[in-house]
Structures are given as structure tokens and as C-alpha cells.
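We emphasize that the prediction below concerns an isolated chain of 225 residues; any contacts that depend on oligomerization or on bound cofactors are therefore not represented. The input was used exactly as deposited, without trimming of termini.
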Amino acid sequence: MNSIHDMGGMHNFGPVNPELNEPIFHAPWEKRAFGLWLLCYDVMNFSEDESRGGVEHTPPDEYLSANYYERVLGLLERIGVEKGTLTDAEIEAVQAGTWKAPANVTLSNDATRPGEVEPAMQEGGTKYRPDFATPALFSVGDTIVTKNINPVTHTRLPRYARAKRGEIVMDHGPYVFPDVNALCQGEDPKRLYCVRFEAHELWGADTPARDCVYLDLFEPYLERA
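Result of the prediction step, given as a C-alpha cell string:
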């Protein structure tokens, strides 16, 4: 979607100043927020793509004034209410410091235990779906043009790379298609390509001639040049 999160190529946000020896978490609550986020994927039954789409609906003023984990907590509140896991009254009680956990809550047998979190994180997961392989519309070396789409929902085609000419340099095979999966309409795997764009194609003639950008883009985003 076209919202404040898609900041590639935007001006007047100042320089990017990487923090030297930046810690993974700046405060203990960020670690807890991250753990809660992972737990809620199963508890609230939402996908990573749905999660990203939810964050993108954060109002611009809130998005720019919040850090990463504050956005995550806002997402969990919205999705929790939408899916019936939380109520507005419960959220308000937590914020007021008056909420108390029910005394009879017990962990189900399939609940994630603290000692299981780190191994699960190290194992990771994949969105690669080789069983859904279909004939590729494009081959390495083909010149393509990205479509000029402006969806109101989640997409992985950034604004700065729309209606631009590039070259296919790698075929990754079929992967879960985020645009559909974010809408809870199934994984709908699509072929994913690595596309090379000359910098002057994206940013104009005054960019260094040797610079280029590589983007992994799904087949539905592309047309033959």
C-alpha cells in the first residue's frame, strides 16, 4: 500500500546514522514485546504477511513517532481485537494498570514454553513452496518492466521501483505471495525473481553510472519489456 512505511526514495527525513555496537534490544520491554509478537502468531492465528499489512495501517503520525517494538505492540492490539482474542476494555485496563490475569489460566499442551523459544528461532522457517512450481514466464537475462500498481493493501513492490525497467538475474522459484496471504486468502505461491535495476533508472541521470539495485520481485509485478 502507499503509506508512510514505504520510505524508499523519500526526501527530508535526514541522514541514516547507524548506532555503533547497537544492541539487539535497547530495553527489557522490547525483548518482551518481541517474544509476545512471536507467541501471538499462533495464539491469534495470523501470518507474517498479515502482520506487515497491519503495521502499514498505522496512522502516519503514530508510525513516525513510534519505534519498531511500539509499532509491534500497536499491531497486536489491533489484530487481537479484530480476531476476538482481546477486547478494547482489556486493553484499556492494562493501560490503566487495573487488569489482573484470571486465576484459572493454564497452558495448553501445545503452548510454547520458555525453553523452546530459542531453538525455534534458530530453526527458522521458509516460504519456499517447491511443490507449486509452474512454468516461468521469464528467464535470466530477460528485460522486464514493473507494473505501476497502487494497492490499498500489502505489497512487496516498493513505490520507487514501479513502472521501471530492469533485468532478471535469478529465478528463486515459487514462494508464498504476500499480497494475497496478507488478506488471509491463502498462500497462493508465485515465482520470485531477483531483478537488477540501474540506479539512473530509479533515481535519475545524476546518479553514479556504476550503481545498481537488486530487488526480489514476484512474477505478478512484472511485464515483458
